[in-house]
Amino acid sequence: MAKRTSIPKKVKEVLREEVGFGCPVRNCGNPYLEYHHFDPPVHIKPHNDPHGMIALCAQHHKKADGSAYTNEQLHAFKKNKVNSKYVKGNLEWLRQDMLSVVGGNLYYETPVPVQIDGHKLVSFKRDSDGYQRLSVNMLSLMPEERLIIDENSWENIGSPTDLRSPPQGKELEVRYSNGDYLYLRFFEVATAEKLKAKYAIADTSDFNFPLTVVEINFAIGGTNIDFSHSGSQVMGLNVSASVVSHCGVGFSIETGINWLQNPKWKLEQKYEIEDSNVIRVSFGK
Question: Origin, by domain of life (predicted)?
Fold first, then answer.
């Protein structure tokens, strides 16, 4: 499993740009990337020299760790500018306006679709080329490592019972033994009629088509916080669906729970609760 490293942010940026912001392995292009040391491997000489490193998706990073590719192949991947153009061309759906669907709630052009106790569980940020970059910070009652993605960069994974992120990055699914779960699915909706038919929306006048929809389903084990495509449940309370446009934060709740994930390296950033419709839930304290 991938572990946190002290790779400088600038090195990550160089490696990501080098491969065109998607996994350079043929026919992949997954935009969610890790960083592989291969020339030399870190067990031979610890380093963060970008000339001997490459950005790969989680699956192909695992294969590289298992010596599936020679150093010559990995250096060729780094120089494959044709594949970089292919990757960017196939990620054009990330340039479109985005509609986040969270348990039946719809948030249009909302950079933080889900926030709990000030923690941005799922958020997006456009880069200088207009592509959306995904950040994830899973929460847990367990003092164990959980998934963290920082602007499409895999920072932490832990020990999931299942992890799936197919080529092109249009799906991301991770599940842990205690019931912590996250599933993201991206797809394009070309017309207002198709969007109305799928989500029973009456008014789509604010939307620009085609747009990218991301369905966000997640659960936090032991809390009864459960967001599915059919509805949202927070500690046994059903939350009715709504449509919100151009809001900084979409679905936000305050629970007062002492979250225990990632005990080995707590994020130093202090999360600030942004303006939003906050659901305050009492836990009988």
Answer: Bacteria
Q: Are strands 243-245 and 105-108 parallel, antiparallel or unpaired?
A: parallel
In the Cβ-directed half-sphere of 1, how many Cα atoms lie within 13 Å? Answer: 14
DSSP 129-144: TS-EEEEEE---SSSS
What's the pTM value of the predicted model, to 2 decimals? 0.87
Task: Quick: pLDDT tens for 207-248.
Answer: 999 999 999 999 999 998 988 755 666 766 666 667 889 999
Strand ranges inside the chain, DSSP E: 33-37, 53-57, 98-102, 105-108, 112-116, 119-126, 132-137, 148-150, 153-156, 162-164, 171-175, 181-189, 211-220, 225-228, 231-234, 237-239, 243-245, 249-254, 278-280
In which residue are the tokens 């990073």 written?
Answer: 61
Amino acid at 50: P
Reading the block at residue 248, the tokens are: 């900084």
Residue 61: phi and psi, rounded to 5, are -65, -45
| Range in 29-43, 124-138, 264-278 the model is least confident about | 264-278
Residue 41, preceding bond cis, omega within 30 degrees? no
**Low-confidence winner among 16-30, 127-141, 173-187 (lowest mean pLDDT):** 16-30
3-state SS class at 124: strand
Q: How far apart are CA 26 and CA 33, in angstroms?
A: 15
